[in-house]
Specification:
The protein has 178 residues and is α/β, with parallel strands linked by helices. The chain has a single domain, classed as Flavodoxin domain (Rossmann fold, 3-Layer(aba) Sandwich). The chain has helices at 15-28, 66-75, 92-99, 103-107, 129-141, 164-175; strands at 2-7, 33-38, 78-82, 114-121, 145-153. A five-stranded parallel beta sheet has the order 2-1-3-4-5, with helices on both faces. The protein starts with a strand and ends with a helix.
């Protein structure tokens, strides 16, 4: 299985990154391959509702770095969406990416692909409900299959390293992937 991890955290080496790494480590034990992209390194413009993705080749015509991410998403069997909880939703760059997934409605290139959510939140898992609901509705609409989530209480950079139970849970999620 080919896994693409999209990191929507501005903190490289932060809680989101650490948890995604644990999932990827677990998945490697099952001989899956993984690639990680840090979205803050990519210029992703907002969707402008031009609707060009709804006709012709069903692709987004905005020329930015999202054009580099689209084929990686299509080529993956599973996509990990890693984002800290910002105001009960994803980070801005993750939201930009999600908005730009609109071509996949028409071209159905993500249909059947699996996805995982990784979200640290200062207040814990309970406050992640709006984020989970937003992504479940969006990705269900695209025909994607939800296979797991890691929602944890963590705020300071790297503090999740002290939570061995959650690190183990992330590793086991990676190992359970089929």
């Amino acid at each position: 299985m080919k896994i693409l991890a999209l990191i929507g955290s501005p903190r490289k080496g932060g809680n989101t990154d650490i948890l995604v790494d644990r999932i990827l480590e677990g998945s490697k034990a099952k001989r899956h391959t993984g690639e990680k992209l840090y979205l803050y390194k990519y210029k992703i413009s907002p969707c402008i509702d031009c609707r060009n993705c709804k006709k012709g080749d069903y692709v987004c015509t905005i020329k930015d770095r999202m054009q580099n991410i689209y084929p990686k998403m299509v080529g993956a069997d599973l996509i990990i969406f890693g984002t800290p909880n910002y105001w009960y939703g994803p980070t801005g760059v993750m939201k930009l990416l999600i908005d730009r997934m609109r071509p996949f409605v028409a071209n159905a290139k993500l249909k059947g692909k699996k996805w995982i959510l990784v979200t640290p939140a200062a207040e814990g898992a309970e406050v992640c409900k709006p984020l989970v609901q937003m992504l479940r509705l969006s990705f269900d609409y695209l025909g994607m299959k939800f296979v797991g989530k890691i929602l944890v209480a963590a705020y300071e950079k790297g503090e999740i390293r002290a939570n061995q139970a959650e690190l183990k849970r992330a590793y086991h999620l990676g190992m359970s992937l089929k």
